Amino acid sequence: MEQDNSIFNPTLGEIGCSFKSVIEDHIKEYRLLNEDDVEWLLEPLDAISHSADIVLGAFRKGDRLGWLYELYFHQRDASAIYVPFGPPYEEYNEYIDVFDFELEDKPVPEAKPYNKTMLVRGLANWPTIMAVPKIWDDLIIPFTEPGLWQALLLHQAFTFMPKGWHGCYNDAKYVFSQDDLQRIITKYSSYKSIDQEKLASCRERDDIMPSVTIDGDKAVISYCTWNNWSGFCRFTVHMEKHNLSVKFGERDRETLVKYDCGIRF
User: Which of the listed residues 65, 136, 147, 255 has the most CB atoms within 10 Å of its CB?
Assistant: First the structure.
């Protein structure tokens, strides 16, 4: 029987594939390592917009145990480097390690407020992250299927982007097409620790495809991913309309096929 290579959903699947491809292309160019802005993330997300005076940026968040990328907005002419701590912690700046304070029995300092005239550089710790506003209030997101799906992809952008150490537990292979699903089935078909019958039966399920269900000012998005520490999972994310943007609610996970690679960082 000929392989069906069609996108699960002609709109949502294609958007997901384009988003993933754009990130992979820029990673190859080492753009993220140079702490460049990431407006290119929005190129395949044509339903999402923001005001012209701000720019989408990214910084690494975490500590010596692991890191991920976080998105933020700064002004186009921003030049000052955000320094979140003053005396007596000024020597730590944005490279402060929370665990060092715990080991030394010192209180963890509260980060100074951030404003959009500043750039976030270096490896930002957890108090710093709390001081930098999330991006959602600055975005204009239509409450439509494409708009909500694109918002979900942007919300999960860190799973596509480079990661360090414990951050790698967040890696995910998304199922946007029949090819994506078949690659997962083929790669893990010889693993004895996986229920092969369950994995193969995912071809027949009608809830593997990404979907968006809207009910008034509320919506539910579902999608599936493969993760080497949890297996093949279906996620359900609840969202609400919030002014011109959206607010993310609960995210539920259903494990369809269990798997754990056994690696511990």
Answer: 147
Residues 176, 174, 43: CA angle, nearest 5 degrees: 70
By residue count, the chain amounts to 265
Instruction: Identify the DSSP state of 7.
Output: B
- The bridge status of strand 54-63 relative to strand 123-124 is parallel
What are the structure tokens assigned to 132, written together?
A: 């930098």
Beta strands in 43-139 (DSSP E): 54-63, 66-75, 80-81, 118-119, 123-124
Confidence of residue 111 (pLDDT cuts 50, 70, 90): confident
Give me the helices (H) in 78-214, please. 98-103, 126-131, 145-155, 157-160, 178-187, 196-201
Separation CA 57–CA 148 (nearest Å): 21
State both tokens at 131. Answer: 């001081």
**Residue 138, exposed/middle/buried by CB under 10 A (0-12, 13-18, 19+)?**
middle
Least Cα distance to 140 among 29, 57, 47 occurs for 47
